[in-house]
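Recall from the previous lesson that a structure prediction takes nothing but the amino acid sequence as input. Here we apply that procedure to Alpha/beta hydrolase from Oceaniferula flava. The sequence below is the only information supplied.
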Amino acid sequence: MNHQPPVWTFLPGLHGSSELFAGVQAMVPSGVDSEWVELPSAGDQHYAQLSQWLDEHLASGRPRLLIAESFSAPIALRLAASRPEEICGIVLAAGFCDAPVNPGIALLPLRPLFMVKPPKAALRHYLIGDDAGEEQVSALRSVIKKLPSSTLADRVRTVLELQERDNPGIPEIPMMLLQAQSDNLVPWEAQQRLEACYPHAHVHWIESPHLILQRHPKQCMQHIRDFAESISQAPETTALT
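The prediction returns the following tokens.
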């Protein structure tokens, strides 16, 4: 049994960058070790390959709490399935277990769509909320534009190809879902499918657009702290040995 405190590992959304985690970073409790993953901006962007990349780049042998945003939810689930002895908990923020929108979109030529600067109105509507400040929208736009259009298109196609059967079953590992109640990107039906796929998960619905960790870092971090504390106080199980 490893009695070390877990490291909190944050996995980013579709943009693949830790830059948008500034608000969350400031609220990580004192004394908690945290790490902020940057997904590779080149190479194969399918979930199987990204999960393998993460497994190869994360140190092993220490308990770990995975906190995955949106796009990274399937990556966190795969890592937990491959490292059940060290993953002590999973938090999925605005996550999904299958394609949240019509998979037929994958047949479109996606790359040209991402070669233009994303309209602020679209970013507000689908990601950060209509009431988001200009600074938040500009920061989001800047992070997205740093990513090659080909990589962004590949990641979107990866999401659209995702099927529920691709996600591993991990009932032994504690899980929490942070669901965005006003999510215009991941519809209510997709969020319900995620809950049905992992019925043992604790669920918290927050009045928020899709980027729930960016818009409500204080509320989300309070839930994460409470979840981490509940894990530390729980009786030992085979998932933690």
